[in-house]
Hints:
By secondary structure, the chain is mainly alpha-helical. It has one domain. 80% of the residues lie in helices and 0% in strands. Helix 1 runs antiparallel to helix 3 and helix 3 runs antiparallel to helix 4. The longest helix has 37 residues. The chain starts with a helix and ends in a 7-residue tail after the last helix. The model has no long low-confidence stretch (mean pLDDT 84).
Amino acid sequence: MEVIKEEKKKEVSDVRLTAYRFGGVAMIVLGLLWLCYNNALLPMKVYDIVFSWQMGVMVAGGWLLATKNWLSGGIVVGIGAFCMLIDVFNIHISFTELVLPLALVGAGIACLFVKPTKAN
């Protein structure tokens, strides 16, 4: 019984360490990019992309991936990247014509892959 608990503790600490390393690397990169922008070494367009809400969503997804939440992390990164591409390429997308049907398809695919649980 004790061996199983120790293995679980080690696995959790490894995941936490990976997540903290991801956060540390992300902060270093953002700090260096901000420093480059302040010294006119980084174009305004790159600055607007890096310090946008879409990039924040993608970093949050990266954090989830670093903590081994593969499905949720992949979805969050995908949503952030999709919104980033829409913004960068200035694409107009109708919510009712494209987004809602795609959300419905995604929900259907998720239902296919979710393992049903036994009711108590």
